[in-house]
Amino acid sequence: MDDRRAMTAIFYVLRTGCQWKALPRSLGAASTVHDRFQEWREAGVFEQLWRAGLCEYDDRVGIDWEWQAMDGAMTKAPLGGKRNRSQSH
Q1: Which candidate in 9, 35, 36, 84 could, as Cys together with 27 as Cys, close a disulfide (CB 3.0–4.6 Å)?
Q2: Does residue 88 have a pLDDT over 70?
Q3: How many domains does the chain have?
C-alpha cells in the first residue's frame, strides 16, 4: 500500500471514529492500515505533522506562545448510575 493511500485511510478512521475493522475495503485492508498507523506512530510521524502544522500556522497567523489553554469536558452518561439501571429478574 502506498503512503498516500494509507494516510487517507488513517485519516478516515480518525475523522469518523469508526473501528479499524469497519474501515471500508475500498480504502485498504484494515490490518494493513492499522499496522502502518502503529509504525508511523512509533516513528513519530504524527507528532512531526502536528509540529509542522503549528509552525506553519505560527508563520502565517502567529501564535502567542506565552499563553496557552486546554479545554475539556466531563459529563455523566444520560440515565447513568444505580438508580436508573434496568433491573435484572
Answers
A1: 9
A2: no
A3: 1
Q: Look at residue 78 and tell me if it is in a domain.
A: no
Instruction: Give residue-wise pLDDT tens across range 46-67.
Output: 999 999 999 999 999 998 888 8
Q: Please tell me the number of Cα atoms within 13 Å of 59 on its side-chain side.
A: 6
User: Based on the number of CB atoms within 10 Å of its own CB, is 11 exposed (0-12), middle (13-18) or buried (19 or more)?
Assistant: exposed
Q: Each residue of 18-44: pLDDT tens digit? A: 999 999 999 999 999 999 999 999 999
Is this prediction's pTM over 0.90? Answer: no
Query: Which cell goes with 50?
Result: 502536528
Residue 17 falls inside a structural domain = yes
56's CB contacts (< 8 A; 6+ apart) are none
